[in-house]
Amino acid sequence: MEALLTDGLSMLDIPLSPDQQRQLEIYWSELAMWNGKYGLVNASGDELVIKHFLDSLTAVPVLKELPFDTACDVGSGGGFPGLVLAVAFPDKKFTLVERSGKKALFLANTAVMMHAYNVKVLSEDANLVKERFDLVLFRALGQFTQYFPTLYRLTDENGHLFAFKGRGEEIKKELKILPDEIQKKTEIRSAHVPFLEDERNFVIIER
């Protein structure tokens, strides 16, 4: 994991300190230990590093362009991208929302082991979260437009909704469902994940 992660970080031009890289290694180790029991992610080995760790980290250069102090990862699951990005942005506060109790417990325990003190875990449905955030993150293979009302509500005024998505062609079809005023505030940014051939894009919606 260490060599692949280091090479990927170099390709993305993301300088992480030895302590930050150690945090990610602890996270990877905990995933390897508990994934079979909790069903956290559908990947292992190099695939886990590429499709989850590096995929999450690919957003770092783009997120550096956005002003935010608080971030919320909705439907965090195994902790991607929120737990990884919390390491990359130690001065920002991250809230991981996960309604599965066992997954939320894993996230909370892992954050403590990583010494990721800027992370808070909420074990509840996103519809019940009343707090608003500067940045709302969403990473899933399905359509995010069905969750849009909740995601948009959680995004603070002048904040941004940031979705990790796949093919640009499919994204454009999804976005047509949203109101015109929302589409005008939407940007699609192409992304290249190291060692991954699949097409990846970010959808950024300004509140």
How would you describe this structure in keywords?
207 residues, alpha/beta, Rossmann fold, 43% helix
Report on the architecture of this protein:
The protein is an alpha/beta fold and 207 residues long. It has a single domain, classed as Rossmann fold (3-Layer(aba) Sandwich). Helix content is 43%, strand content 22%. The protein is built from nine helices and seven strands. Strands 3-2-1-4-5-7-6 form a seven-stranded mixed sheet. α7 (148-154) links the parallel β4 (133-139) and β5 (155-165). It is globular and about 45 Å long.
Coarse shape: globular
Gyration radius over CA:
16 Å
Q: How much of the sequence is in beta strands?
A: 15-25%
Number of helices: 9
Helicity, as a percent range? 40-55%
What is the CATH-assigned architecture?
Answer: 3-Layer(aba) Sandwich
Please outline the major beta sheet: 7 strands, mixed
Q: Give start-end ranges of low-pLDDT stretches.
A: none
- Overall structural class, as computed from helix and strand content, comes to alpha/beta
Give the assembly state of these chains.
single chain
Total beta strands = 7
Mean pLDDT equals 93
CATH superfamily: Vaccinia Virus protein VP39
Which strands sit side by side, in order, in the main sheet? 3-2-1-4-5-7-6
Order of helices and strands: HHHHEHEHEEHEHHEE
Number of domains: 1
CATH class: Alpha Beta
| Distance from first to last alpha carbon | 37 Å
Briefly note the CATH topology name: Rossmann fold
Give a summary of the structure in a few sentences:
The protein has 207 residues and is an alpha/beta fold.
